[in-house]
Amino acid sequence: MKPSISMEQASKILKLLGERNRLTMMKMLEARSLCVCEFVELFNISQPAISQHLRKLKDLGLIQEEKKGQWVHYSINSACEYYPFVKNILDSLPDQFEIIKNSNVQCNVSEDSMLRK
Amino acid sequence: MKPSISMEQASKILKLLGERNRLTMMKMLEARSLCVCEFVELFNISQPAISQHLRKLKDLGLIQEEKKGQWVHYSINSACEYYPFVKNILDSLPDQFEIIKNSNVQCNVSEDSMLRK
DNA sequence: TGCTTATATAAGTATTTAATTATATAGTAA
DNA sequence: TTACTATATAATTAAATACTTATATAAGCA
């Protein structure tokens, strides 16, 4: 009883994932959750472009945001009904963990600074 | 050692599959190979639109054509290097076999008519 | 308060895309 | 040959899309 997804839903998701930057973002989020400012460093597109990609992914429920002060962290929404479908695809893609690591991106917000509030 | 596909290649394929008609075509071809004239009956778009979708799928190597007289039959190209990636996605989609069957499409070319040549 | 930083939204633009209609190509059959 | 059928290609168009710059929002800090 695999197909709990309609062709309509599947094509919408695949269209979202069919954009190189968004696909890479999703795979990166599989490695760890990331802040918008980290994405801005990782990609060669403007900050608004990043925001717009993230919004589209969020609109379909594939990712979720968590606001931490002025920072916004995004993560995979594994509770999404389409998550198994998406996960299955992401699992076939080359890992992005090293790329994140090598780029040394890091969001300035620390647990410390949040606790100090 | 799963990821034998690059992000670039993956996003191209997902972009192709991200169009509802093309995705449905691919899933139908998983059920059985189909003639262009059958696709024309199955979809509510023009014959040139069908041809153009098929060409895009063929250009990436996902499907192959076999000419039988004036008819052209298309089938999944399971020898394509991206086939495992594609198959994995198609397996998550609702079966289209009943839809093909219920529509009663049938290509006029028969083995007989070919043999009589 | 005003200044800075992080993010989102608005507006505009160039490119891509999926469709259409019209036409070309090619096989079959009279 | 001519006519018919199946398919592909060309040309066009409308809509979608991915980006940009400019601006708005909102939080943190002097």
From TrEMBL, chains A, B:
It comes from the Bacteria. Keywords: DNA-binding, Transcription, Transcription regulation. Residues 2-101 form the HTH arsR-type domain. GO terms for molecular function: DNA binding; DNA-binding transcription factor activity. Gene3D superfamilies: Winged helix-like DNA-binding domain superfamily/Winged helix DNA-binding domain (1.10.10.10). The keyword Transport does not apply. The keyword Transcription applies. InterPro entries: ArsR-like_HTH, HTH_ArsR_DNA-bd_dom, HTH_MetalResp_TranReg, WH-like_DNA-bd_sf, WH_DNA-bd_sf. This is Metalloregulator ArsR/SmtB family transcription factor.
